[in-house]
Structures are given as C-alpha cells and as structure tokens.
Write a structure and sequence with these properties.
By secondary structure, this protein is an alpha+beta fold. It has a domain of 65 residues. It contains eight helices and 17 strands.
Length: 347
C-alpha cells in the first residue's frame, strides 16, 4: 500500500473518515517494521511518504499523527528515515520493551534500563532503554517529540535448571501463562502481585546494573518485570533527557484494583508523579547520613511485619517510600511472603 500513490490516498481518506466518525484526536502508526520481516527495502522511504500524505490530510482537521517505533538498533537502522519522520510526526514513541523474552534461550529482562556487564560478550549491549532513546536522539529525533515507552508487564521463562537462576541462565521455554493475559511467557504487573500471594517461594531480586527486578517462583519460573521502584528510574530518565514524555503498554495490566497494597494503578501513578516533577506516593525525605537509610534498596520496617520501605538517593538526601505487603503476608528477605515462609515468624 505505501508504495502506491493511489492506495495511499485511499488509506489516508479512510483514516480521516474514521477519526471524524469517532471523534478521535489523531492516529498512531504502528508498522512493525518498514523494510523488515519480508518487506521491501524501499519501505523505509515509503513509510515517510505515507506519513507526509497523512499529515497533509490531517492538518486542516487538527488531527495528531504519531508513530510507535522499534528500540532495536538493527531495526532502527534498516526501517527508519529518522529526520524524515521527525519532520512529519507530532510524537515518536519508542517501544523500549520486548528486548528479551521467551524468543531467547536464556534469561534476561524485558526492558533493562541500562546494560548488564555480561551483555557485551553476548552482543546484547544495545538492548536497553538508555541506549535506545539516546540512539534515536543521535539520529536526529527531536527530544521534544520523543516519547519513551515503558512496560506494565514482565516476560519470563521456565528454567532448565532451577539452581541456575541468574541472568543468561539456560531456559526450557516460555514461563507459565497468567490468568488474565493468558499468554505463555508474559505476566501483567497485576498478575505478578497475585503470584506473590500464591507461592511461598516467590523471591524478588533487584539488579542494580539494569535498575530493575526479576522474580523466581514455583521452583522453575523466572520473570523480569517492572515495579514502582524500576518505573521510577525509567521515568526519571525521561525527565533527565528532557523528552516529550512517556507511554505504557498497557494500562489494563497495572494493579487497577489495588491488590498490591500500593493503591490503584501504582505504575501509572508513579510515572505521572515523576514526570510532573512530584514525588511518588507515600514519600518522606530525610537528610543523609542518619535516619532509616544507609544504602539504596528495600528494607523491612520491623520483624514479622507487612510494612517495608524503599530508600532512593536524591541529591545528598534520601527519598523514602513507605510500602506494605498485601493482607496476610509479611515482608521477608526482599519479598512479600506468607508468614509461615519465615522460620522466625511461624507460630
């Protein structure tokens, strides 16, 4: 379609009619991906021409034109004329997720903020959010148009050997499907909240290189995901780079019922607070040194208690987030577990 002027015209006209009929603000183009997956190399230029045709037809109506684009370097290089797209689009949304998953034969995080030291030796040094966004900027994408995507879900694996459960551990396939997303190898943040209650062996492990957690449970399940701690770091990168904003995939996998004990929609609300220059919920600030924080991370607020807190360094001070596990569980050794999972708290 994009290679033929007549077909482009038909498509553009149908888009205008659709937007008018339903009162939409605009159109988001999600072509995955021009000149890839069996497409023609000419589609790199055809995509820009299609965007120009759409923009010309949208302008009299005030419609927005945006595009969701790849975060992978090889795809960016082959699929996109970044200057040409930047001249036409109102916003460019980088899908900074799906960098690893069950399509790999080893464990890794869905959306690492930064690279692992091991990534270089596995030729994965470009698969992280920080590189992807900076690469788009280096190719000419204006920061005032660039939007960073963030996942409200995790991707996971079934471990080949449960005792080998770090990064780059061999896998035996996709992780178990959840009750709502119902796709092997994917769990929504809301599903992960519920899994914390279901499995006494649930463990959350924070990795400070990639600024994100992963979890293990049910003996052989391994999922990299994002929570309020890691999403704070991602949103802060958006602020630090002066980008247009953030977007998520997707809103229905947030904890919209508040089962995590963090209120409704904790991921979305955390992003909103950070991008608006506010602090996320349940915040207190104390000067360092002293107080409850001596290093960054999660800490128990007491023994056999559901209460815990997170310490985040901030310009010589500590931001402290007071948190709580779900009803009937306690915070123990880095995760929310049933009380009988702790020898000290049994009975």
């Amino acid at each position: 379609m994009s290679a033929d002027a007549g077909r482009r015209s038909t498509f553009v006209a149908s888009c205008v009619d659709l937007l008018k009929q339903y009162g939409f603000d605009g159109l988001d183009m999600d072509w995955e991906y021009p000149a890839n997956q069996g497409g023609s190399p000419a589609d790199k230029g055809n995509f820009v021409q299609l965007l120009r045709d759409l923009k010309a037809a949208f302008a009299p109506n005030g419609f927005l034109l945006t595009a969701a684009v790849s975060a992978g370097k090889n795809t960016i290089d082959t699929a996109y004329d970044v200057p040409g797209m930047s001249q036409t689009l109102d916003y460019i949304s980088v899908m900074a997720y799906d960098m690893h998953g069950a399509f790999d034969s080893y464990t890794h995080h869905n959306a690492p903020l930064f690279a692992l030291p091991l990534d270089q030796s596995h030729n994965n040094q470009y698969f992280n959010d920080d590189f992807a966004v900076r690469y788009w900027l280096s190719l000419g994408a204006p920061k005032e148009k660039l939007v960073m995507g963030m996942p409200v879900y995790g991707r996971g694996f079934t471990l080949a050997d449960p005792s080998n459960n770090g990064f780059y551990a061999p896998t035996a396939g996709a992780g178990t499907a959840g009750p709502y997303t119902r796709e092997a190898g994917i769990l929504g943040f809301n599903e992960i909240c519920e899994i914390q209650k279901q499995y006494g062996d649930f463990k959350r492990i924070w990795n400070d290189d990639i600024k994100a957690p992963y979890c293990t449970f049910n003996s052989n399940q391994w999922f990299g995901y994002d929570d309020t701690e890691s999403i704070t770091q991602k949103a802060q990168l958006i602020v630090n780079l002066g980008l247009a904003g953030g977007m998520v995939w997707s809103v229905e996998t947030d904890d919209f019922q508040g089962k995590c004990g963090l209120g409704n929609n904790p991921i979305l609300n955390t992003i909103k607070k950070v991008l608006n220059g506010q602090s996320p919920p349940n915040e207190a600030t104390t000067k360092a040194p002293g107080g409850r924080c001596s290093s960054a991370g999660y800490f128990a607020a007491g023994s056999c208690s559901p209460k815990f807190y997170y310490c985040l360094p901030n310009n010589g001070q500590w931001i402290i987030y007071d948190l709580s596990c779900a009803a009937g569980t306690i915070y123990y050794r880095g995760s929310c577990v049933w009380s009988n999972a702790s020898p000290e708290c049994q009975g």
